[in-house]
Specification:
Length: 526
């Protein structure tokens, strides 16, 4: 693999991947708008803004932004609570301003505290969710919206019952289309296809889209009644009969709502949730990036904020960085952020120039593309690798996977982080303090910084020291010692007098105060 993208090859790859991502993103944008109870075109607007505006401000080379399924419930509730979509748009603009403020305050560092095992679990879980959610679409059951990530859906079903119902109501035409498209995608990755000069620059997903349209049109012409005729089986991009009608899809915010307390609560909620999702997605994007480039998370918050301001101003949904689009981008061969920009331009072009053609695209063929992306994210090798890393890595990983699959993305990551934190505390609980013995002399050593987390192990270590002993407590390797540790140490020294234990404290001079000052402060707290 080359160490960095290569000139004209990069642009060629970025153009192809941008086209692929736009085809994947279009039904996701529409589906999330539908689930949010917002105008369908609002999802397209958010996708275009995410592709163009966010990309211009961000320094991530592979991340792709757009409307996020994780915000769908918040959006649907907010539109109802605020009374109109125009007032909600004002909340989106404010959310963008809040996000930019978070970026300026350098709050992007929060993303750095997510354990790698949780990030890998998130990627594997998203792959599994994509597979589980796309199986019904591949079988012709399109009742659930594209882009859904929640285990429970709005109709009261769940991911597993949706698959069971899809199996019992499978549509033959959809099955044929999805299987044919999967076969094409697998074939397109074979070396002999890549060695054919005129086929090499053509992305497999683009071939799949045309194959899906062609197959369904073939069924329509030669097997009437067999083809996918119901619009719910197709991409449903809003059509415009005139330029005026097209621009009528855009909506402006109601700024008169600036006195409403509920607007600010909604804006703050959107800003926090969208920021967390974006930071998680950026961490995942950097893991997926074949060139391992590092994204500035503070700059990303500013970019996402700018995107949300622009999206809200013209009628779009809130925006985040989205792992599904990002992974599609990486696996399609993206090398620089030009691919995300090109994807945004393609989305806008589709909406303006060829909405009628795209509305002939069966969701079954797009399901085939997403199924392959899901497989690449959740490969068996990843699970094996995490298993070999030991249970301290595997448990946070697998619990994150299960939590996301059976709840939703944000809840699952929070559960995974809680498990990861447990193992961090457990590791710190045992490792920072050691004790060695020679005759009746005991050396208690701080191996690194010690905090209140290590208080229980420090107390139990000192309790093991018998009467009539000599004790040295050595802080050579500790640059920081928490006040709780000093409290325990000074209490032990007081008890030692009555147990005929002599206590010597070594190398505590780097803590900023003398031992006498720290002991007085400790005594003052009792």
């Amino acid at each position: 693999m080359s160490k960095k993208p290569q000139g004209h090859l990069s642009l060629k790859n970025d153009f192809a991947s941008g086209l692929v991502v736009s085809l994947v993103a279009l039904p996701l944008c529409l589906g999330i708008a539908l689930a949010s109870g917002a105008p369908l075109f609002s999802g397209v607007i958010a996708g275009v803004i995410g592709g163009i505006i966010v990309t211009l401000f961000s320094n991530s080379q592979v991340s792709v932004s757009g409307p996020a399924a994780g915000l769908a419930v918040i959006v649907a509730t907010a539109i109802q609570d605020l009374g109109s979509y125009e007032v909600f748009l004002f909340a989106v603009v404010l959310a963008g301003v809040f996000q930019m403020g978070l970026g300026v305050l350098r709050m992007g560092m929060i993303g750095n505290y997510v354990p790698n095992a949780v990030i890998r679990g998130m990627l594997a879980a998203i792959g599994l969710v994509i597979i589980l959610k796309q199986i019904p679409h591949a079988l012709g059951r399109d009742t659930n919206y594209e882009g859904s990530f929640s285990f429970l859906d709005q109709a009261g079903d769940n991911t597993l019952t949706d698959i069971l119902k899809a199996l019992t109501t499978a549509t033959p035409a959809a099955i044929i289309i999805s299987l044919a498209c999967i076969a094409i995608l697998l074939l397109w990755e074979k070396p002999f296809i890549k060695n054919i000069r005129f086929l090499k620059p053509i992305p497999g997903p683009l071939v799949v889209v045309f194959a899906g349209i062609g197959l369904n049109e073939f069924f329509k012409a030669f097997f009437p009644g067999f083809h996918l005729a119901d619009p719910e089986h197709m991409v449903q991009l809003p059509l415009s009969s005139s330029v005026g009608e097209f621009f009528g899809h855009f909506t402006t915010p109601n700024f008169d709502a600036f006195t409403s307390k509920q607007v600010y609560i909604t804006a703050f909620t959107i800003a926090i949730v969208a920021s967390i999702e974006s930071l998680l997605s950026i961490e995942a994007a950097d893991k997926l990036d074949p060139y391992k480039r590092i994204t500035s998370t503070n700059r990303e918050l500013i970019a996402q904020g700018a995107g949300n301001v622009c999206s809200g101003l013209i009628g779009g949904l809130p925006i985040t960085s989205v792992v599904v689009r990002t992974s599609a981008n990486v696996y399609a061969g993206a090398q620089t952020k030009m691919s995300a920009l090109i994807h945004g331009i393609f989305l806008a072009s589709f909406a303006i120039l060829i909405p009628g053609l795209l509305n002939r695209t069966p969701l079954a063929c797009l399901a085939a593309i997403l199924l392959l992306i899901g497989y690449k994210l959740a490969k068996v090798e990843l699970f094996q690798q995490m298993w070999r890393a030991g249970y301290a890595q595997f448990l946070p990983f697998i619990i994150t996977v299960l939590a996301i699959v059976f709840t939703d993305l944000l809840t699952g990551v929070l559960i995974g982080m809680a498990v990861g934190l447990f193992f961090v505390i457990r590791a710190n609980h045992h490792e920072p303090i050691t004790m060695v013995k020679q005759d009746n002399c005991y050396l208690v050593r701080f191996n690194k910084d010690v905090t209140f987390v290590n208080k229980p192990i420090f107390k139990s270590t000192l309790q093991k020291i018998p009467d009539n002993s000599q004790v040295i407590i050595d802080a050579t390797k500790a640059l920081y010692i928490d006040n709780d540790i000093f409290d325990v140490m000074f209490e032990f020294r007081q008890q030692a007098y009555f147990r005929n234990i002599t206590v010597e404290l070594k190398h505590f001079d780097r803590q900023g105060k003398t031992l006498e000052e720290m002991e007085q402060a400790s005594a003052g707290g009792h």
